[in-house]
Amino acid sequence: MRNSGIFFFFILACLSILAVLAMHARHARAGASAVLAANVGLVKTLGLTDLCLFTEARYTRHPSMADLHSPFQDHPFAMDHFPSGSLVTPPRLLQRAP
Amino acid sequence: MNRGFERHRSIIDFSISSLIRRKGKNLSLLAVYTLVVFVIASTIFFVQALKREAALLLGESPDIVVQRLVAGRHDLIPIGYVEKIAAIRGVSDVKPRLWGYYYDAAVGANYTVMAADSDPPPAGGVRLGNGVASTRRLSDGDVLTMRGADGTPALFTVEKVLPEASELVAADLVMMTAEDFRTLFAFPDGRATDLVLSVSNPRETTTVAAKIVRLFPDTRPILKSEILRTYDSVFDWRGGMLVVILSVALLSFIIFAWDKATGLSAEERKEIGILKSIGWETADVLMLKFWEGTVISLSAFLVGTILAYLHVFFFSASLFEQALKGWAVLYPRFRLIPVIDPYQLAVLFFLTVVPYAVATIIPSWRAATVDPDAVMRS
Amino acid sequence: MTVIELVNVTKTFNAGRTNQFKAVQEVSLSVTPGRVTVLKGPSGSGKTTLLALIGCMARPTSGRILLRGVGKPLFPGAEDNAELEISSLPERFLTAIRRSAFGFIFQQFNLVRGVTVLENVMLPAYPTGEKRGTVRRRAQGLLEMFGISRHASSRVDLLSGGETQRVAIARALINDPRVLIADEPTAHLDTGLSRDFMEIMGSFKAEGKTILIASHDPLVYDSTLVDRVVEMRDGRIIYGGDES
Fold this sequence. Notes:
Chain B has 378 residues and is α+β, with helices and mostly antiparallel strands. Chain B has helices at 2-21, 23-58, 81-86, 130-135, 167-170, 178-185, 205-215, 224-262, 266-277, 282-314, 321-325, 342-368, 374-377; strands spanning 64-70, 73-75, 77-78, 91-97, 99-104, 109-115, 125-128, 143-147, 153-161, 173-176, 191-192, 194-199, 219-223.
């Protein structure tokens, strides 16, 4: 088979796979409604305010609840308000392995 | 029309055979290119899906959360505030919330402990989030030992483990009765962590919040809209952080590709000279170079995007774990609902395929405009 | 019949610069159609440049080059006998004429390395948009004619000198040109292969093709197949031109 034929076939195959994935996405969205409803139920009954994404610290676990003086409040990329954050190491206590 | 199409096909044939002739260089280019697209597309899929779920789930968060600040720090709120706040016009419901953090020294993980008042577990029992259960290897009926505020151990029986699908909101949750909560943390009576409110008319939330602050100047109300906005920027940041890293990767790749492409090797130049001498026009040569670049970039884009989708939605974006986990011991398993944003993918397409095509054509321009008889003179 | 006429053609390289160089100076020549013409002269005499000018590969700095009998493929309605002044045609037309009317055999063969024999032969036909199957069959026929069809799928750099030249000749013929131009074709060949080459040229002459060869090899210009010898020196014709 010609080179260009193989290439066209390959591109077509990829596009078909993408189409299948798009359909999978739509199907999964429809099928996920039960799970979504269950999670929404949890949010409602417990009054949850944050997603459980980063559990290292309080202000990362509940960024929306964190008080105004903890990091990330201005903008998450602003790691520290003050340059001293880069100069002062964490206290010894925390550097010990658990 | 047929002639034009046949001409394109023949030129594509030759461009592919030219690529195969320099197999090593082109395979590595394809691999790097696919990797870059894969990482960027994974980020796009991941962030989009998280954003969407955040909006859907946190859309049901409380309308207002009232915290109390003492000397600039978050402090416990007196339950006595409930009555006055409930009396504010527009407030349909006020509830105190009991929740806090627990550091489990045995595994180095942080849990969020919550008192569940509607549908609580039995006294002495806990309902665990899936992340807690797997970190401590607990299942229904097992015993969880926690260290109380006075140092004595407290034993809880696991009543139920929440399903894995709930990890995004509840991976680190430990739910117990309000009494057990107060005992465990030696929580002062008459206090709560914060209050949650429902406001009947969503447009009045700001007014209600203002009234609360006037009533109790030591409080800080947090609106649902602010909660949602936090997550918008969190995802842009986290995604942004990755995108910054990737922009650097992409930029270095472009430089690498450009460097390869601008230095048209003597052999390639000779080939172009030969083609021109046997009757190929400048336009034909440029089309050849265009397809040489496009075959690689198009393939890389499609394969990278497909792999990215599979990575994020079938393998829970496991490759991002290291970047996102940080110091956390508990990390949720992302069963994200697939979302494909065609706009962002189109942008990715134009950012990756087009520059590469340009990077291959422009350096060839000079060589392509060579006189057909140049190959005879050299 | 293809008629090629050069009127007072001059080709200057690097015009206006210190290394300005007149490769061809005021050459007027009427190429005899259907005959074998040899351009004879030492290297630097301008033979190669003249061939390039005739074969539509370069444009003269001054003077005119006229072609008759090549117009049909370009302008379907035109008479085949229409006279075209190629010196003033845009690149696209020039290339189209060159592709269809002229077949070039280069001194260095100029085949694309790493590509198979068959693909090398088919290359000049790619931009024409002709159906690949047709081109392929024609190419295979040519390879058979020159006895090298067994090398069709081999890489062209693995062939011997004689075989490579035959590939070069086959390539020159893929678009069925009316004029064959060869630049020092026997430079890398031994006597036996040189004689083979002249024989092949003879067969094309018998088909009615016009053949132009630039050579300083006596085996070529003394051959009985040659109808006309034009001698060149320092860019001018010194013998065998139109006047004589």
